[in-house]
Amino acid sequence: MASEQDSVFKKKYKPGRKSNDVWEYFIKVSLKSSPGHFSAECKFCNKKWNRSLVHVLQFHLANECNSCPEIIQTYYLGFITAKDTSTSEKTTSNKK
Fold first, then answer.
1. How high is the mean pLDDT of the chain?
2. What is the pTM of this model?
């Protein structure tokens, strides 16, 4: 019985960090030289990154990709704006 519970646990819970939703719009390829890191290709315009970062991909969809649907572009533009606003608030509140 314990082995059944172990297999259910292994299927439900993956170790490591949860993948960001932005990856839904990119082709993600694992880098053999850096485990846990990925190259990316935009599904809309086919722009490629040898080693991608989530914030760079979000910025691309919000500001650079001309083929990205407007609803996705608007979502990431709002997401980036909100993130920038919260970061600037933290910076100014730390100043004396």
1. 83
2. 0.72
